[in-house]
Amino acid sequence: MGGILWLVPFSGIVAVIAAFVLARDVIGRPKGTPEMQEVAAAIYEGAMAFLKRQYRTIGILSVVTAVLLGMLLGAIAPQIGDVSGAELAWRTSVAFLVGAACSAAAGFIGMWISVQANLRTAAAATRSLKEALQVSLRGGAVSGLLVVSLSLLGVMGIFAAYGGFTRPDVAPYLIVGFGFGASFVALFAQLGGGIYTKAADVGSDLVGKVEAGIPEDDPRNAAVVADLVGDNVGDCAGRGADLFESTAAENIGAMILGIAIYLATQDAAWIFFPLVVRSVGLLASIVGVYVVGAGQAEVTNAQAALDRGYWTMTVLCAIGIVVVTMVMLNSWWLVAAGLIGLGTSVIFVYLTQYYTAGSWRPVQEIARASRTGPATNIISGFAVGLETTGPTALVISAALLASYYCGAQWAADYQPLITYLGAEEAILAGGLFGTAVATMGMLTTVAYILAMDTFGPITDNAGGIAEMANAPEETRHRTDALDAVGNTTKALTKGYAIASAALAAFLLFSAYLDEVKKITGLARIPVDLTDVNVFVGGFLGATLVFFFCALTIRAVGKAAGDIIEEVRRQFREEPGIMLGTVKPDYARCVDITTKAALREMVVPGILVVVFPVIVGLVLKAEAMASFLMVGTMAGILMATVLNNAGGAWDNAKKFIESNELKDDAGLVLGKGTPAHAAAVVGDTVGDPFKDTSGPSLHVLIKLLSTITLVLAPLFIR
Amino acid sequence: MGGILWLVPFSGIVAVIAAFVLARDVIGRPKGTPEMQEVAAAIYEGAMAFLKRQYRTIGILSVVTAVLLGMLLGAIAPQIGDVSGAELAWRTSVAFLVGAACSAAAGFIGMWISVQANLRTAAAATRSLKEALQVSLRGGAVSGLLVVSLSLLGVMGIFAAYGGFTRPDVAPYLIVGFGFGASFVALFAQLGGGIYTKAADVGSDLVGKVEAGIPEDDPRNAAVVADLVGDNVGDCAGRGADLFESTAAENIGAMILGIAIYLATQDAAWIFFPLVVRSVGLLASIVGVYVVGAGQAEVTNAQAALDRGYWTMTVLCAIGIVVVTMVMLNSWWLVAAGLIGLGTSVIFVYLTQYYTAGSWRPVQEIARASRTGPATNIISGFAVGLETTGPTALVISAALLASYYCGAQWAADYQPLITYLGAEEAILAGGLFGTAVATMGMLTTVAYILAMDTFGPITDNAGGIAEMANAPEETRHRTDALDAVGNTTKALTKGYAIASAALAAFLLFSAYLDEVKKITGLARIPVDLTDVNVFVGGFLGATLVFFFCALTIRAVGKAAGDIIEEVRRQFREEPGIMLGTVKPDYARCVDITTKAALREMVVPGILVVVFPVIVGLVLKAEAMASFLMVGTMAGILMATVLNNAGGAWDNAKKFIESNELKDDAGLVLGKGTPAHAAAVVGDTVGDPFKDTSGPSLHVLIKLLSTITLVLAPLFIR
Description:
- By secondary structure, chain A is mainly alpha-helical.
- Chain A has helices at residues 7-28, 34-76, 85-125, 129-161, 171-212, 224-265, 269-291, 302-328, 332-356, 361-369, 374-387, 389-412, 415-421, 423-443, 446-468, 473-520, 532-573, 576-579, 586-657, 674-715.
- In chain A, helix 3 (85-125) packs parallel to helix 5 (171-212).
């Protein structure tokens, strides 16, 4: 093991310190004009009020779930190794609550720093683009670093507390509850936040832009503060919890797969490798963040500056993967697997860019289709979304097969494993471990990616604050430039999140099957689709994805309806609002959106938790595995469609707004033309797709994995 | 076997005679005014011109494929039983061509009678609703009866020609090429026809209703004849070929499953059961058609009259299932399985109605969402489409599990099978056979369903003819009433087609695995999702469905673009068209649509044939099975979304047009309001969903099955 494990707490603590330094830097910056501060204060209050109420609901649900979980496992769970059913039960319940608490904290941190950084970014934009870029990225980085280090320290901490260093072969089974708790909170955080943000966005657009004919972010629109709050509670709090649970669940899954090799070699390096390689990525991300804008007097191209940080970080990660893998695992085949994972994440970043940025064919095709009205805009955008599944699936499949091949090649020459498992089983275990290494390779970059993601809503908010506070033209130009880059980075993160979910999926259900094997004592658990139960299980898994999308999309529609009613009411009852002489009641809109979003998140959330349990109890473990696998495939594809169609519609509208669309005679078709109106329809349709259903599907996929991992003992025949 | 096999040729010949009698009846009716005849002649010419060119392309593709197929199988195929690879190769190629020819004939018949019946229906509508209903339904029945009897006689004929009665254990493997040929032609027929009809529809609507502001089916619109032609080449020719290949493929699959039981019992009843039970359904359908309108002086409610026929036929089918199953198979468990299948088809008819008819919550919800514009209309309709997957999948899953259970219960007591296979394998084979019996139970009703389906485009055309020929108000009222019913029956057929595809899917890939077992000599072929190749195979299968939808939806967009250009050009170059003094050049529009549709059908068509072959060759037989299974699941769900969302949007628009939508103050929001415009957008988006991509997916699912059945020998490791 080479004593390299100290890197985990070291990097975790370094990252926490770096986050504090960055946070102090952001908070110490000037807060701008009183008008700006007033708007920011309203956003802050609204966001905090939402989070408080949301966390109360989630807290109650979590405690109830933890108790039920403990009771169920206590009543039914069998012995695993030297762990009794009762011990498994209470440890899982406690781990669940710790995971839930960490996930909630990750979401809270993401949002808290974001509602500080938005104002500072707006203020910095009055001075220079470079400063505005640095403030917003550093704000994002606080969230990114803390989320990742929290996941690292949390998994390591609970692992140590549960005796992981004395019995590393069973401890991972005890900590799967941590992953479930994290996913559970992330699901509701992402659902509630996603519904909130898009209900506010769609509602304020429809009643403001469409009905009243006032511009976006106009202070006369009572829903505008709710819209700005939404960016924070959806994109920041939701995404923070989402990526926290991803990294936690994938760490745990990879550790479980490592057990097979640990048992053969008695070298715990195989279990701890995931944690160490992630530590390296964390350190690389810190460097990446500081590189952005460094040594430049002023930034002219914000995207290029971010890219410089991204590439610095990626190269450092690649070096880190090589070093850590050789030191701990000593195999070039596994190095190759890790680099395949890293390379896949880079490909996904560019693939998403191709499909959702205005410089390429897909978005331009949608913009052109807008010339014949909203119907062709929608058809074209939906076709682009569907099309993206092709390259996405091919890249994922190639990465899976290639990393599996690398792992199998390694195992074919690795004598301890062959001696312990026999040649055939060793190659299977090695192949699986190869995909786990690839997943870890991909996830090294997560902290920087999350920083770029949180950067998006911060700049979006900064733009809104500048607009509402009537900041000078130049300031708004700067925030607009950052906002455009933020749109791209938000889309990239979604591509990244899906790719990592896909790569991790195979790892996670292999971990599930490992657990079933351990419990049943069987050597192989085939998930045979020719068995009618397994087939039906898979079919229902895919169906859950489709049905869940229906519920979440409808939830946005319903919540938006509540907001529209309220804004209309305010316009009707107080004519001074439209004249600009009376301020609308922003707080009431925030309050109504909060209530509606929390109301609407419960049904889809509970469905996703309860339905798999019913399927598992009725159709049993193999059908559950197929439910999970086919559900994951469907989830990946559907999320790809929704995220990319949404992103492409959004940018097709921006393409038209930047006067790049022309008619047959060469005349510009810009803002205010029917083509633009058509593009606005597409953008609105895409809102719940890309910011509610799509991101919720990321969490759904992981939640299915962690649920099955935790409840595996219940599903044994 | 009880000598009951004579029923197959008997019912086939009776159905052919009945079809001729019905066709004579239809053709002998009055042809209406000269104006009507002129319009109908234009439609007839356009449809025939399209079919001629389409069939030339399909013919070339079919011959090339047959030759390649023969060469590939000849080079690689192993011995199956006493059949050499070379014999398998040439017999498969010939069967492919025969299947292709029959499928093409089925499509041609469907369209030919439809372009005769449309004019007679329009003429009949000048006299009475009852006569118009009878003419259009009987026209549809000609197609329904001939398609089903052709499939019955075709399968039976090639089975006999290939020595099925002397060696029934291998003959089904020789005739799988028939199913592949049928699917191959159906795919291109449905694709080409589907693209044609919706490109013409979308194109003529956008340039006519939206740009020029003239009503639907207005004679000044140069694309209006192309639109009417489209109904015939898409809904009639396409659907005819689609249901032909469904019934053929499912018959063959069920016969292959019957072989296992034949080998145990030496009673060929187990192989011929599917053909006999279908014969009974064919006879029941003839009765059903004659019941509609019989004994009534005048029909006031066309839907109720059709329902009377439907229920008469269903009750007769139920009786037929009981009698045939008891006589041939002598098991109440299998009777139950057959009735489960029949019951499932009835449930689907009502389920589709709930989701796509204006009397219930889903469509009304979409209509209400139209009040806030096109974006909310689209969001709401898409959510409804996604929602429908829930009940659909639950019903299918329940039917599969229940019929499997019935079959297993039967086998558990059936000594010959247990003696031959052993208890465990006997129960598996019995369960599978149970699902096959359920599929056959469901498919008994297919001829009547197809009659109701073809009824739809006939009435739609009749309405168009009446409109263009300036028929009196009363006539148009009657054709409108029939058209509304036709919309419902078209939606029902799609629900039915999906349910039968789903039920048959399990049967078809079981047949595929039976073939792989036979070739490899292995007792079991597990399709184990934990194998990375199998997992990737499944993932790529689901991806093919998504990507295929992208291609087909885009194809409609592109072809519509060509039409829009042409109509605009005609309006621009000949101002007399808009004034109504000069007739537009309908033929040129028909010609352009034909070319565009044929051009656009090639890429998606070839993709679905070639991609599975590549996956099978690279990842091998088990991965291919998973490709097929997961692809089928995804296809069922996606087609359900597309068909139902499209149907619901269409009827939400009709709901508004019939003045049933009100605003908050209770005022009617009818035609010409922004709510109606929003609903038109949804309807247009739904067009390619429900009439191009959705129906093409039905064929895709079956094609995957027949391809794998035929090429199984190539995929063995």
